[in-house]
Amino acid sequence: MIAADSKGVTIVQQSLKGRFVDDQKFGDVTIQIGSRRFLAYKGILSARSPVFASMFEHQMQENIGNSVSISDIKPDVFKELLHYIYTDQLTGLDAVIPDLYAAADKYAISSLKDRCRQHILQKLSWKTGAETLMLADTHQDPEMKKQVLQFFSGSVAGKVTESAGWRKMARTHPYLVDETVKALAAKVRVCEQ
Q1: Which of 114, 117, 75 is nearest to 98 (CA)?
Q2: Which of 33, 51, 128, 192 is the 20 to 30 A CA-CA neighbour of 161?
Q3: Residue (of 51, 56, 59, 58) closest to 30 by Cα position
Q4: CA-to-CA distance for 154 and 159, rounded, in angstroms?
Q5: 155 Cβ contact partners less than 8 Å away, ≥ 6 residues apart
Q6: Is 108 inside any structural domain?
Q7: What are the residue boundaries of the BTB domain, all occurrences included (predicted)?
Q8: How many domains does the chain have?
Q9: For residue 187, is it within any domain?
Q10: Are the beta carbons of 69 and 58 closer than 8 angstroms?
Q11: What strands lie across the sheet with 67-69, from one edge to the other?
Q12: Which residues 6+ apart lie within 8 Å of 173 measured at CB?
């Protein structure tokens, strides 16, 4: 049996966090994000992400120079991504969860994407609904999209359409407004029968 603390974090996970995430002395690849550098381990990154595996297996610049430059992820999001890769744990940074979800999608880390989706849907509200629907659409996540549309068809539809997120969605993703209206109409038809 493996010992764990009250949150279920095992000694192995604590050790990995301390050794691989916090200790920036070792590593066999440097990941540059803006002005921040992260030392990481190709083997661990490759084991958890088929995208990283592909980068390191082929004669890409990342494999030759042992350096990767990433421009579309914020440093705090990448730090959380590394933490998850090494420990299978989230630190609970609500502010980065949508960006972490996007990073999990980009690097094909399905377990992290699933956990982020679950967290996002647990926090779903009339204020976040439109943003969440756009996130689901951007990352082609039919399950999240379905959940958000079901949420919209509840009693909060009026509040959702008054939110800043809804106005943004109407401007940038008008087809999602159409899908939402169709989902609401289908719900009304079911209720009338």
Answers
A1: 117
A2: 192
A3: 56
A4: 11
A5: none
A6: no
A7: 27-94
A8: 1
A9: no
A10: no
A11: 36-40, 29-33, 67-69
A12: 133, 134, 137
Q: Are 144 and 120 in contact (CB under 8 A)?
A: yes
Instruction: Give tens-digit pLDDT for 8-62.
Output: 555 555 655 555 556 667 788 999 999 999 999 999 999 999 999 998 887 666 5
Torsion from C-alpha of 60, 61, 62, 64, nearest 10 degrees: 90
Q: Which structure tokens are listed for 60?
A: 């890409």
Residue type, 13: Q
Q: Which residues pair with 30 in a beta bridge?
A: 39, 67
Q: Is residue 92 left, alpha or beta, with left meaning phi > 0 and alpha meaning psi from -120 to 50?
A: left
Task: State the SS3 of 105-149.
Answer: HHCCCHHHHHHHHHHHHHCCCCCCHHHHHHHHHHCCCHHHHHHHH
47 is in which domain, residue-wise? 1-89
SS3 content of the chain, % helix, strand, coil (to 5): 65, 10, 30
Residue 12 CB neighbour total at 10 angstroms? 13
Residues linked to residue 60 through DSSP beta bridges, in sequence order? none
Note the pLDDT of residue 56: 87
The SS3 of residue 37 is: strand
Residue 129 corresponds to which tokens in the numbers above?
């609904």
Quickly count: other Cβ atoms within 10 Å of residue 29's Cβ.
Answer: 21
Q: Which two tokens stand for residue 158?
A: 């009026």
Residue 12 lies in a domain: yes
Residue 111 domain-assigned (yes or no): no
Determine the Cα–Cα distance for residues 169 and 98; give it in Å rounded to an integer: 16
Q: Tell me: pLDDT of 72 over 90.
A: yes
